[in-house]
Design goal:
Distance between the termini: 25 Å
Order of helices and strands: HHHHHHHHHHEEEEEE
Strand order of the largest sheet: 1-6-2-3-4-5
Strand content: 5-15%
Shape: elongated
Structural class: alpha+beta
Length: about 350
């Protein structure tokens, strides 16, 4: 990481009077209450003796179908149906197991439910439909499960030691639900959090808009989020909105409305304090989609304003791929960039409510 490459990336709040006017207008236009998350339709099961999915037996497919049927009966959106199949894959491989493990010797069934009174009788836990119904009812009681990463939503129900245990089963769960359901679906157009979706490259909506350096520090240089076009903070707040299901106007999170105390996020310097004021968690471990926060001067960031970016990919060697805007020196400033960074370089990673530190 070149220390001089983060030079002027967060100079976005001057002059205050003009931009304050823009922020005030945007504040008036902000929605009072965000719309409920749309997690896709509830799919119905279509399975017969000819239904085949590579790598899965008829027994496993029937168990997956029982889970989908239980979700349909409880009007569970398709994301929840996929989560339910994912958890069963991670717990039992979609088999009704009449045994537990070292951590839960009394665990039984598709979801390895314990004999603690919460999951019904032994026959209940060994019945695919009843055990799935009990899992789904518990999932629906998790506050905000729709906006959690699927593996975290599953963990809130199962309470297993590793909250990311189920992550690797998500692709197969999607494949199974698609194969066994009554129609093709996509979560890409829904409001709900989808794992690994920090954006597909430079999809920033204002990539061709003028910067404040080109047209002056007025309304013409401000995006709908209340910050200047093509600054690091504007891109990062766009990613926050995008991952929280707000992909168009009116956006849920604006510069002037993000913090409960009304203070702005206009400078990268304020982002860590903004996260703290919001009550959102921070940590030292990169997770896809987390905001990367550099305190002033850290990692070559601007000595006055610092810098923010977004984690695009996490690698196994202790590095991650960072994406953002205005992270290169002129003449390539105010453009999209990616770079590989050691995880110990930033000052902190700022997590969304969909994320937790592993």
């Amino acid at each position: 990481m070149q220390r001089k490459s983060l030079g002027l990336m967060a100079l976005i709040v001057v002059p205050g009077i003009l931009i304050g006017l823009v922020f005030s207008i945007l504040l008036l236009l902000a929605p009072a209450n965000p719309a409920a998350a749309n997690c896709g339709p509830t799919v119905s099961v279509v399975i017969n003796g000819d239904t085949k999915v590579d790598g899965y037996s008829q027994e496993q497919l029937k168990n997956a179908a029982a889970i989908l049927g239980a979700g349909k009966a409880l009007n569970l959106p398709v994301k929840g149906q996929i989560i339910s199949v994912m958890v069963a894959l991670g717990e039992s491989g979609l088999r009704v197991l009449d045994r537990g493990d070292a951590g839960g010797p009394d665990s039984r069934g598709l979801f390895q439910q314990r004999d603690n009174g919460a999951w019904g009788s032994y026959p209940d836990r060994m019945d695919p439909t009843i055990s799935a119904t009990n899992f789904i009812k518990a999932l629906q009681k998790v506050d905000g499960w729709e906006l959690l990463e699927p593996t975290l939503a599953g963990n809130k129900v199962q309470r297993n030691a590793d909250p990311y245990h189920y992550q690797k089963y998500w692709p197969d769960a999607v494949k199974l639900v698609q194969a066994l359901s009554d129609g093709k679906f996509s979560l890409d157009g829904s409001d709900c959090a989808i794992p690994g979706k920090s954006g597909a490259g430079d999809d920033y909506p204002w990539k061709d808009s003028p910067t404040w350096m080109q047209v002056g520090a007025g309304a013409a240089a401000a995006s709908s989020l209340g910050m200047f076009h093509r600054e690091c903070v504007d891109f990062a707040l766009w990613r926050v909105n995008q991952q929280m299901g707000s992909k168009g106007e009116p956006f849920k999170f604006l510069n002037g409305t993000f913090r409960p105390d009304g203070q702005a996020l206009g400078s990268a310097l304020a982002w860590k304090a903004g996260w703290d004021a919001k009550g959102w968690s921070t940590g030292s471990v990169p997770r896809v989609g987390a905001v990367v926060w550099y305190a002033p001067g850290a990692g070559g960031a601007d000595p006055t304003y610092g810098h923010v970016a977004v984690v695009k990919e996490v690698k196994d060697d202790g590095t991650y791929v960072e994406e953002g805007y205005n992270g290169n020196p002129p003449p390539d400033d105010h453009n999209y960039y990616t770079r590989t960074v050691s995880s110990d370089v930033p000052s902190a990673f700022l997590y969304l409510p969909t994320q937790e530190e592993k």
